[in-house]
Task: structure prediction
Amino acid sequence: MNDAPSDRDGPGTHVEPPPERTVVDDAQLALLLEVTGTPKPGNVDRAHDYDDLRFEHFLAGGVGARPGLELAADGDRLGRAFERAVAGMSQQRAGNTQFGALLVLVPLVRAASEGDLTGERAGDLAAATTVADAADFYRAFEHVDVAVEDPPEGTDALDVRRGADAVPDLEDRGVTLQDVMVESTEIDGIAREWTGEFARSFDAADRLLDLDGPVPDRTSQVFLELLAEEPDTFVVTQHDRETAEQATERAAAALAGNADPWALANEFVAEGINPGTTADLTAAALFVALERGLEI
Amino acid sequence: MNDAPSDRDGPGTHVEPPPERTVVDDAQLALLLEVTGTPKPGNVDRAHDYDDLRFEHFLAGGVGARPGLELAADGDRLGRAFERAVAGMSQQRAGNTQFGALLVLVPLVRAASEGDLTGERAGDLAAATTVADAADFYRAFEHVDVAVEDPPEGTDALDVRRGADAVPDLEDRGVTLQDVMVESTEIDGIAREWTGEFARSFDAADRLLDLDGPVPDRTSQVFLELLAEEPDTFVVTQHDRETAEQATERAAAALAGNADPWALANEFVAEGINPGTTADLTAAALFVALERGLEI
Result:
């Protein structure tokens, strides 16, 4: 007793400070917060499921993606980190839950782990990807069915739906992952982030930080704003441009107070209008905002 | 081209199998699935929040707990793994979200990581805890406010609300963590698991595996069954035994089809009846079930 019994078994009354969330923790939490933002018209949220794509699949996807996110933070090849993240994500019955979100997150996670989470730095990382990254990207399609557009004429050999079978062709032609993204800029909102310094992700992060109230409510608001600004490229792929433009107009009407976002959420689910790319950008925005101090 | 270009940049068309979920992944996923089980009367779920305790706090808690869960899987002292898990969990604005769930999970995670996830083995691990584990347990109370009963007369020195200040007294008296649990068996359903080979957790896991349908629906069902079987000790602590017994009767009525579980969920939230210990046991059951092959 006179000899500080606390020294026998450890630091006694001393208590270590809590562990802080790591970059990977923030990426994982961003995936979980994205699906929790409600209402997020046409997407899975706390109040909406599709028959074969439900809330719990996104939870399992967010847990399963972690080894790939760790690779991104640890400096492994971005393509490989993405492919491993997708492989882990796919270990639930719905298949593709967060493919696009992981694609936009991976360069951001790398930039953050280097201590320089800016659009310019993430854009540089994207631009520096190689043929090996492109091969990883194609391999990722082996793990899940992803709805994609038909490739431009004359580029069938590089159709992502060929998956790993396209790798020798990629390598012959010296196509880098950034080349693939540049090729897809017109038809894919995630590719546009890769080739445009992740402008919408960072802009939406600022808005998440500026808003007040519970984070899932802010997430719902920013999702609607993103959707009202630009047609969702996943809706274009699954339906057509007209449907996507109408979805954007309907989101704008809800934002303007001329429609109820909750009603819109039910309508979109019923019509199978799933603005998944906008949800992916929302996940990226949540990650950037968490890294910049968004409190939960 | 003739020389297998795929060998230059990796395994070419070869695709590695997906990473499997680890024990820690399953523990984290169990925490996330628990809060997703809906309706779970009186607890936060997809359809219910309390003003200061909301769905997103459980997500951040489940992410933050991970370093502690890793320690449990890696063979560190159970008390220390628990204290670190609680410290990480606490890094969100609601404070205590999953204290009890982590307490019941930590021995189960250790048992699973050793490849022997049985009630007997988890009970042996609990029984083998030391004074150092008890000191860790008390330190965990420094990170969060946990509603607890007044200690038995004459044991004020060991009141958990003293937190780390009680550590020298614990050490003087040679109180182990299992001693603390034995002392609390009558008043705490988690302590009863620690001293009773985690019987209810394993039994509920079997029921989760036997049911059909989406896991959150099964989770809701098993939660109701657990609540209908025994009064929730957290409700006893926050209110009184009579309220807890009535809550159990109301859960039984809902199970028997004489009341609507969704209505009960709204009533319990309105009345501030929060069967948190039953939710903690549900998280433990989900972990065991995931380890035994529950598919999401």
